[in-house]
Design goal:
alpha+beta; Immunoglobulin-like; 3-stranded antiparallel beta sheet; globular; Secre_tail; signal; hydrolase; nuclease activity; His-Me_finger_sf
């Protein structure tokens, strides 16, 4: 009990006083990859505490004060945000050895160590290190993150999906995830935005090194865009559908005190679109027709489409490729078409006219 009280006091102190200093982002004035480089210059040269120091960091930054509020270790691979967790770890339940899920927790590199050959300062960077169940961490291995279909993989000693619903299997290779059919790992929805923003931080913080690292399916070998298709589309959709949480804000503040840099995409989530918006791979036909979609993002449950052309068909498609609404020969008023009763989320809007089609991103808040 005495240990828990001490850790909580440290955590509260760090969060209370850790905010970006005045002017921290003053030089972040550009757009596109210019902005990404400006952010790199702001967050580089962090104070590397080393890999082993993370063991002392987790009990400060990664206690569950958000769900059960029981001060156990918050593990994104075992947390059940809507009910009782399948198991819990206290700060002293670190691995050693493990045989099955729920035995102990260890350090999960969201970007696998094999990508950067376990070199510093990446290996000890708290922004992409999370405490996770040792067995699930081993199950994820070095698989990229993606959207798993029905073709799950098997591995001795673990269920798939895991006890909180995280799973591994072949990427669905359709919709937003088109272009990759290999094995991927998918966390539960509650933490998908967290995983996405960790990636956006990582490829910004290490843009000066990343093009020289080992081949990795999620990276394209460049130093600017870095995240390859379809993974950029997947991460972007996760970022939109799972907005920044208080957990991420608090952890970002604590990391700033710990190693002296911040994740700018937690502080300013809109920068993801500003930097990578033009690189999102949305299939577009060779022939365009005059088209305006508004408002986007929308704060209502409807979309208005203006076009000089007579539209033959409108499809509203989810990130998993499911057609939510199909409108054939839609009616128009003053060259405007309206789709209503849309739930909040990230969609593709496929519009067809005279055998030509165009697909646009749509965000409903």
């Amino acid at each position: 009990m005495k240990l828990k009280i001490t850790l909580l006091f440290i955590f509260s102190t760090l969060v209370a006083f850790a905010q970006p200093p005045a002017g921290y982002y003053n030089t972040a004035t550009g757009t596109g990859f210019t902005l990404k480089t400006q952010l790199f210059n702001i967050i580089k040269d962090h104070n590397d505490q080393g890999y082993n120091a993370i063991d002392n960091f987790f009990p400060i930054a990664d206690l569950d004060i958000y769900y059960e509020n029981d001060n156990t270790i918050l593990d994104v691979y075992s947390e059940n945000p809507n009910g009782t967790d399948p198991y819990n770890f206290f700060v002293f339940n670190t691995c050693g050895n493990y045989n099955g899920e729920g035995d102990c927790y260890n350090k999960e590199h969201i970007i696998p160590q094999s990508v950067f050959s376990s070199n510093t300062p990446m290996r000890g960077d708290a922004h992409h290190l999370l405490p996770t169940d040792g067995r699930v961490n081993g199950f994820r291995g070095s698989y990229p993150f993606g959207i798993v279909g029905s073709n799950l993989i098997s591995q001795s000693g673990i269920s798939n999906p895991t006890q909180n619903g995280s799973k591994a299997g072949n990427n669905i290779n359709t919709g937003v995830a088109s272009g990759f059919s290999g094995v991927v790992f998918e966390p539960i929805d509650e933490f998908k935005g967290d995983i996405a923003r960790i990636h956006f931080y990582f490829v910004t913080r290490y843009q000066n090194l990343i093009s020289n690292w080992s081949s990795y399916a999620m990276f394209d070998g460049s130093s600017n865009k870095v995240i390859s298709s379809p993974f950029l589309d997947i991460l972007y959709s996760w970022h939109i559908n799972d907005p920044v949480s208080q957990k991420e804000i608090d952890r970002n503040n604590t990391i700033y005190q710990y190693q002296g840099n911040r994740n700018p995409f937690i502080d300013n989530p809109q920068w993801v679109e500003v930097i990578w918006g033009n690189s999102l791979s949305v299939p577009v036909s060779a022939t365009q027709f005059n088209l305006t979609i508004y408002p986007n993002p929308s704060n209502s449950n409807r979309i208005h489409i203006e076009s000089d052309s007579i539209l033959d068909e409108i499809q509203l498609i989810t990130i998993n490729g499911q057609v939510m609404q199909l409108i054939q020969n839609p009616s128009q008023q003053n060259n405007t078409y309206t789709i209503e009763n849309i739930s909040s989320g990230f969609y593709f809007l496929k519009i067809t006219s005279d055998n030509q089609s165009v697909t646009k991103k749509v965000i409903i808040n």
